[in-house]
Amino acid sequence: RGGSGSLPGLLAECGSFQSSEEEEEEEAGPGPAAAAAAAEQRREERLRRFRELHMKRYEACKLNSQEVVEEDKRLKLPPNWEAKKARLEWELQVQEKKKECAARGEDYERVKLLEISAEDAERWERKKKRKNPDLGFSDYAAAQLRQYQRLTRQIKPDLEQYEKLKEQYGEALYPTSDSLLHGTHVPSKEGVDRMVADLEKQIEKREKYSRRRPYNDDADIDYINERNAKFNQKAERFYGKYTAEIKQNLERGTAV
């Protein structure tokens, strides 16, 4: 029968009581097992991150040590090591190309010229022209070296005569500190004439460079000392054509 004591009413009251207990459990939070599992998961995550940081630190120390070793090696190398290394690598490449051209039966110089552009060829020609530029006088040692290089470039040895002398004198042609060759060699008349002609050519060229400027006694004296004379000469050279008329008017007394 209906009423508070009936079976349907009791079941409804039990259901409401059970649902209220579930809500209280949800409000109270997870149980101890779930909390322990979450704590263990957080601990594993922290350990994983710690291991990653430790590995990164190890890799950084290893790379730093390698770089220190490489830097020490670079400091011990000569200052022009990079240029020498590039030069050696280039020479190896040239040798490999020569071998390849020889294997194909081609001329390496011709193949190399086919690979050079017109701009590079012009630039190299300009470099050749200014390979030994005359930078003027710096000191006597440099002037003597330039003179020696210029004279040695002009030498054209007589190889046939050299072979004859080598057959005649043998090892005595190559003297050492213990050799006594004074007075044993008589130069040929052609060699003496060639040396005399070269010396006369040097003297003639030297006179052109070291000639004294002629002094004109009839020139106007418009200076008070040598330094002032040089200054006036420079001024006349640069501004003479602009001041010629003014100077003439001052000399005639007709200047305004």
TrEMBL record:
An example Gene Ontology biological process: mRNA splicing, via spliceosome
Signal peptide limits: none
Compositionally skewed regions (Low complexity) per UniProt: 29-39
InterPro entries for the chain: mRNA_splic_SYF2 (IPR013260)
Subunit comment: May be part of a spliceosome complex.
Family, similarity comment: Belongs to the SYF2 family.
Name of the featured protein: Pre-mRNA-splicing factor SYF2
Biological source species: Falcunculus frontatus
